Amino acid sequence: MTRLSAFATVLGVVLLLVFSGQGWAQQAAATTSAEKGHAFSTSDSTIGELLDNPATHAVLQKDVPNVVTSPQIDQARDMTLVAIQPYAPADLTDAVLAKIDADLAKIPSSPAK
Hints:
Helix 5 runs antiparallel to helix 8. The protein is 56% helix and 0% strand. The radius of gyration is 13 Å and the shape is globular. By secondary structure, the chain is mainly alpha-helical.
């Protein structure tokens, strides 16, 4: 099994568990980092928010291309990278998340226009 297909399989199982469980309502009601008025981050910004902004999307594409190109990534749009870290430990190590956070901190928090 390739690394990407293993990631996709694990992400699919995680999403099924999360979306069928108790975390769904909290995630659906969450506001974006930009709406909260603070910078983007792996712990506060949803994957969807990061993918929809061209500048933050570029950071993800550079640092975690396997995550960005996963066929199931759209199913994780309401989750954060930190939330899916336990299910993709090879791709989302603490060091990778720290690098992403450092890159995201350089991007203004205003929504992309």
